[in-house]
Amino acid sequence: MSKSFGMPIILPNATQHDLTNPKTNLHYRIQISWPLDWDRTKTLRASKVPVIYILDGNSLFLTASEILWRSSSNTFYQGGGIIVGIGYQDVPTDSGSLYSSQRNTDLTLSEHEVYAGLGGADSFLDFVEQQVRPFVRNQFQDVSIGEEAIFGHSFGGLCVLHAMFSKRGGSFDAYFAASPSVWWDVKIVEEAENFCSCKDEMACSLQLSYGSLEANPRRATSESDIEFEERIQRSAERKMGENAIAMEKTLRESGRLRDTSIINFEGEDHCTVATSALLRALSTFLDH
After folding, report:
1. CATH number for the domain including 149?
2. Its pTM surpasses 0.90
3. Residue 231 Cα distances to 186, 213, 225, angstroms
4. Which residues form the signal peptide (predicted)?
């Protein structure tokens, strides 16, 4: 690309902060945004503002912020809330991707016999609980923090489910798991069963979602017969929609949660469903 003489883009009402997990020495980039008409939000929310924490912040923070700002006048958003993206300090132009390999450590439950460095979800969630959330509250001392939610997609969705099933369950008011990678680790199914065996009700909700094309892939124009057949096979093995439906049914029938829902986003695949699910998560969470 030739040298540009334009001005860099500056986001309104947004900041970023670099934090380190003192227990693992892993580094994070915390990005925060809030409504453009902040005084209006504080008035509508009676100075008790909701917060949603978004995993894979590098790839989803800007999307979430734009959704919030664009929908500020939408009745369902009721003045909006605070967006917190939990991401990484990687430079996307160096790696060629918005996704950091560190997510493979942070968002998975168990060590893997082939892939090294996995299984750090508990350390990561402790960091979110003990470092990130207090840090965010300290940034907004002029308001009280209202309800809090957590959103994750793919491995992030798996991590969200683990957060709800673990000892931390109920620390968030709403959990949003988009296309959770249940297929990756059978431990999450065991955790769900143990979670449901307890009869104590929890005042939190869960929204699961997936894309219809995850079960019935559409062939890309550039795809060969072999490539398409291989992708069909992977989809059949991973059972993204089937696993999400089964998980929601099990949790709904347990009666432990305030509310559960399952959404099939028609025409979306595993990648594109993240945006649709995030939009729905924001409108659902902020509508109260």
Report:
1. 3.40.50.1820
2. yes
3. 22, 11, 10
4. none
Residue appearing with tokens 């929310």: 45
Structure tokens given for 249: 């049914």
Q: Are 38 and 53 in contact (CB under 8 A)?
A: no
Spatial neighbors of 224 by CB under 8 A, at least 6 apart, are: none
Q: What is the extent of the structural domain holding 190? A: 14-89+101-286
SS3 117: coil
Q: Please give the Cα distance from 58 to 81 (Å, whole number).
A: 19
Domain count, the chain: 1
- pLDDT (tens place) for every residue of the chain, 288 residues total: 556 678 888 899 999 999 999 999 999 999 999 999 999 888 888 889 999 999 999 999 999 999 999 887 777 777 899 999 999 998 887 888 888 889 999 999 987 766 778 999 999 999 999 999 999 999 999 999 999 999 999 999 999 999 999 988 789 999 999 999 999 998 999 999 999 999 888 999 999 999 999 999 999 999 999 999 999 999 999 999 999 999 999 999 999 999 999 999 999 999 999 999 999 999 999 986
